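>> received
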Amino acid sequence: MTARRSRHRSAAYAALALGLAGSLALTGCNSHSSKKSKTSKKSSSSSSKSKKRRIIGGGAAAAGAGAAASRRVPDCFPSTYKVTFSQQSGPDSHVTVKFKNTTSRDCKLYNAPLLRFNNAKSPLPLLQGTPGHLDGTRLTVPAHGYAYAVIPTNSAATKGTEQKSVAIDFMGVSASSVTHGPVTVDFAEKRLHLSVGKTKVTNWTSSIHGAQLAAGVGK
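>> returned
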């Protein structure tokens, strides 16, 4: 082989090696670019999912707050047609105070009704506790449901004399608060004959029998 041919072949090999090196470099660059693109897509997808989760989570929290607000039970309030009175005679004589929830949602009653007969300055004392020392009764009255309190009048002192009217307040959550009122029931207008003397009134209960037992006039 002559020196000229040897130089020519060496130059060809060198050119081929340079071409292969360039091709490999281009392939590596493309591969790196492709990996960057895939990583970028994954990051974008993850960010989008994270945003969706935050939005969904925020929506669930808002819905929960709305549901909690809708579950708040308002206080009951008296009126001349929501509160009625009746008196039973005999050895277990007593006056029944009945409250009807005429609304389409539940409401709350606290402790006992505050009753001032014949414009008395102070309400009838409480049989279960005193205005300063309440026992914390809270009664939820269902929509269109009832609650009862009883005034025992089974002795001469507790029966006393016939009353003309009664002013009604409903207690609030604290001893000194009231929810609404007062409203006044005129017994003459209602054609009621109620005799109440030195007696007390029970707390609200969900059944007439429970109120009678609390007053000591039930069996």
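>> The helical segments are 3-71, 156-159, 187-190, 208-215.
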